[in-house]
Amino acid sequence: MAKADTSPSQCKQEVGHVHDECRSVILPGRNPSALCCQLVRAAHVKCVCSYVTPKVANFIPVRRTIRQIEGCGRSVPRNFKCGSEFSTSNLYLIYIS
């Protein structure tokens, strides 16, 4: 994962790609595609978490999202705050960092 700072336009583009490729996985019974997982593994926390506003968080099933991130080889630490949401998972996971 790249550690370099990203510009606002790079963040917007990154979030757009993740959103476009991964949005269907919030539906029950759907798993992330290989491209979705590739984008999740490469995503910058700063970019993705800035997108998680209270309005967006109302539409995201947090526990399912955490399981999907784990399925892509990433994890979310307990009580990690991303945007307006805390992870509520009791599982030990490693998040996009």
TrEMBL record:
Record keyword Transferase present: no
Organism: Pyrus ussuriensis x Pyrus communis
Name this polypeptide is given: Bifunctional inhibitor/plant lipid transfer protein/seed storage helical domain-containing protein
InterPro entries according to UniProt: Bifun_inhib/LTP/seed_sf (IPR036312), Bifunc_inhib/LTP/seed_store (IPR016140)
Origin superkingdom: Eukaryota
Gene Ontology terms, MF aspect: lipid binding
Keywords assigned: Lipid-binding, Transport
Described function: Plant non-specific lipid-transfer proteins transfer phospholipids as well as galactolipids across membranes. May play a role in wax or cutin deposition in the cell walls of expanding epidermal cells and certain secretory tissues.
SUPFAM superfamilies referenced in this protein's UniProt entry, alphabetically: Bifunctional inhibitor/lipid-transfer protein/seed storage 2S albumin (SSF47699)
Domain Bifunctional inhibitor/plant lipid transfer protein/seed storage helical: start-end pairs: 6-82
Pfam family, any one: LTP_2
